[in-house]
Amino acid sequence: MKNGKAVRETIGFLGVIGSLAFVGVEIRQNNQIAMANAYQEVGLRAAAVWEAFLHDPETAALVAAGRDPSQWESLSETDWFRLRASTISGLRAWETVELQIEAGVLPPDASSRLGYNINYWPYLESVWPDIRPALSERFATHVEETFGLDRR
């Protein structure tokens, strides 16, 4: 009798261990799927931005003008508004990627691989004091360190 009880308890214990191992594997697989989905989503968003420059010559020209201070005088008030909106949009997307990196959802090099932190341009420096408050303090500091911007 005692021997049978010990066998049943051992089998029950092994069943619990097996169940826990199965749950652990399932959680790991779900995390991997979530990470892949997050990376795919931000990758598609980044690609859409670059595609817009390919298919919209006006937007591409506007961004190019924003990178060249000698062209700034020719920009209209609407152009400046569009540049500011584009800059804030790009920074928000980059901030989202950084938050996902911090949470462990994306790999540490996701920002540079997606092209979010390689495009410093003089326009950003000129409007930084106006745009900075729209960002979280932590991310604003990250942008300043990345591009050597003054906090002002």
What does the model show?
- This protein is mostly helical.
- 76% of the residues lie in helices and 0% in strands.
- It is built from six helices and no strands.
- Helix 1 crosses helix 2 and helix 3 packs across helix 5.
- The longest helix has 54 residues.
- It is elongated.
- The mean pLDDT is 82.
Q: Helices, strands, pairings?
A:
Layout: H1 2-55, H2 57-66, H3 77-102, H4 110-114, H5 122-131, H6 137-147
Number of helices: 6
Could you spell the SSE succession in H and E letters? Answer: HHHHHH
Characterize the largest beta sheet: strand count, sense, and whether it forms a barrel. none
Mean pLDDT: 82
Total strands: 0
> What structural category arises from helix and sheet content?
mainly alpha
Low-confidence regions: none
Fraction of residues in β-strands: under 5%
How far apart are the first and last residues' alpha carbons, in Å? Answer: 81 Å
CA-based shape? elongated
Helix content: over 70%
How large is the radius of gyration? 25 Å
Output the keywords.
0% strand; mainly alpha; 152 residues
Would you kindly provide a brief summary of this structure?
The chain is an all-alpha fold and 152 residues long. It contains 6 helices and no strands.
